[in-house]
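Q: Here's a chain of 419 amino acids. Please give me its 3D structure as tokens.
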Amino acid sequence: MVASSAGTPRIAIIGGGIGGLAAAAFLQRAGLPSTIHEQAPRLTEVGAGLVLAPNAVRLLRRLGAMERLDEHAVPLDIGWEFRRWEDGRVLSAENLAGSCERLYGERTYAVHRAHLLTAIASTVPPDALHLGKRCTSVTMRGDTAVLAFADGTSTEADVAIGADGVHSTVRGAIVEPTPATYSGICAFRALVPAARAPAFARRRAQTLWIGPDHHLVHYPVAGETAINLVAFAPARDYTTESWSATATVEEFLAEFTGWDPRLRELIHGAGTPGRWALLDREPLQHWSHGPITLLGDAAHPMFPFFAQGAAQSIEDAAVLARCLAHDVRVPERALRRYESLRIDRTTRLQKISHARAHLNHLPDGPEQQARDASLADEDPLIANGWIYAHDAEANETATPVSPSVGSNMRPAMTTRRYR
């Protein structure tokens, strides 16, 4: 790695979620300090569970975060277990115990988002995190980014990283602001205490029940003390996009009327479910401009149907840190390289995640029967090898820098050299 001989760029990260903290952690590991500006008054992670595939786990292990996470993470023995909606018949399942580690060098884990956030935060210097700092705008003054905050303060940075989610403020400094569109799908999420869950849901399995216009996923989290549920249904006139919005168990159950009674028993054990509308965005053609770049959902929000949202944020963070470390004197060039290395992969995942909604929600009939037959013939562990085998750090030098990733790329800024 190349290091600056007389100073390093001032790096500001907007957003203290999984992606923002991972960026700070990988930058710290590369010898580049940063400052995180998080709008919340305390570091918390709403939501429930997520699945960590090997492509994310290997990076977290290098950070030292897996040591902290191992206490709560649940290694999955069965993954992508598809079941038919009305009777729970298993359409296909993959054996992860042994196979996943043999193929990809790591296991797949189910974790609570809060535990993941805490594990990554443990690798970041405490004084790097500034809470209660809601960023209201990012502008450029010459080759410097200027961040303004709701409390009336502002700061300058040589590199500004927007890790501020699907409603990103930073995004507007790079592309023309356009509202996200509603996908027509809403999601429910809930945690069920393991003691109240049926035995089939307590297995170390990621199970997907698929049926007409709906599907539901469940797996154990939090050291197997709880079962995470996330379900998808038609949004109809529901347009609230907030992870703090709630529904009732009765509303959740109503969406799965006529489904296998065992699944309804699992839903019945939930506490107050969350509910939010899934937003849809077209993939960006570029996400860096001068000293400003994007990361995670701010750059490439994707439907959760391949369980890769958090993983891609972590991959982004690892690649961004290495690019900056290799080209620390010219951060604008490093950001363009980061974008060029990441955009094809994340765009592909955005597109296939989007397409999965149609496949999971087919009505009963010939197309559904063909899908079910293909599920029985395909091993997702092998078919998705391009996702799981990917080592973001090992591949960091594999792709040449393109001077223009998208046709709408703004002109590159004059580079700033650190001497």
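Q: Can you summarize the key feature?
A: The two ends are 16 Å apart (CA to CA).
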